[in-house]
Amino acid sequence: MTLSLPRLAILATAAAACAAPAAAPPSAPLPSADAPPPRTVQPGAPGEAPRVVTAAQLAAMGGVAYVRADVDFMQGMIPHHAQALEMTALVPERTRSRAIRQMALRMEISQRDEIALMAGWLTERGEAVPASASAGGGPAHTHAHMPGMLTAAQMTELAAAADADFDRLFLEFMIQHHEGALVMVDALFSTEGAGQESEVFQFASHVDADQRAEIARMRSLLQALR
Question: 53 — phi, psi (to 5°)?
């Protein structure tokens, strides 16, 4: 069979199209050189709006000396985190909730890492590290004067509970505990000269944002139990 020239042209075009590699998907546009640099939000003191800190300002904070309030904050937050670890250690044997198990595991991992960070910060500056930063450091409820800390009676009540009763108490007590951490962050940033060193600022800002998010999640889970 003889093919006409027009038909040969059509077939040749179709073959070329099949042989050609597929066009690559369009790549995401690169950030513009004029795009604003990343920013950090510093929580405000009670009643005050948060403050936006630019990357340049954050870098400048690296040369700011720490003050006594920064040390007190780090030393206080270590036993505060340590009690949260005492609470999460009770979860595996007392709950049937997968959501609470997952949340407790996330808290355990993050708070252990943060204790190590705070202990390192204190050690590098020749400041005392609380005993509760290490294994066998003693019960954290001995620091019950700090905001949000559970009393020995509350810890005993939590340890004695199981199933739905445990879930409710764990969420209520951990919300109390997290809200206390927010009070400590507010106190830091409302103290003149405190929270300005770069590492302290970034850590305290992270604690504020992370614990607010976890409080919202726990309130949602608590509402589902009622």
Answer: -115, 125
Q: Phi and psi dihedrals of 6, rounded to 5? A: -60, -40
Give the HSE-up count for residue 155: Cα atoms under 13 Å, Cβ half-sphere.
Answer: 20
Cα dihedral 170, 172, 176, 182, rounded to 10, equals 90
Q: At what angle do helices 163-189 and 198-225 cross, to 10 degrees?
A: 150
Q: How far apart are CA 88 and CA 140, in angstroms?
A: 13
Owner of token pair 């910060």: 121
In the chain, the amino acid numbered 167 is D
pLDDT in tens, 172-215: 999 999 999 999 999 999 999 999 999 999 999 999 999 999 99
Query: How many whole angstroms separate alpha carbon 205 and alpha carbon 193?
Result: 16
What is the spatial distance between Cα 43 and Cα 35, in angstroms, rounded to a whole number? 24
Query: What contacts 151, CB < 8 A, 6 or more positions away?
Result: 141, 144
Which of 12-16, 108-112, 129-133 is predicted least confidently? Answer: 12-16
Per-residue pLDDT band for 109 (boundaries 50, 70, 90) equals: very high
CB 178 within 8 Å of CB 216: no
**Token pair of 32 as six digits:** 């513009």
Q: How many other CB atoms sit within 10 Å of the CB of residue 94?
A: 19
Place 144 in a pLDDT band, splitting at 50, 70 and 90. low
**CA dist list (Å): 53 to 60, 63, 193, 198, 214:** 11, 15, 16, 11, 24
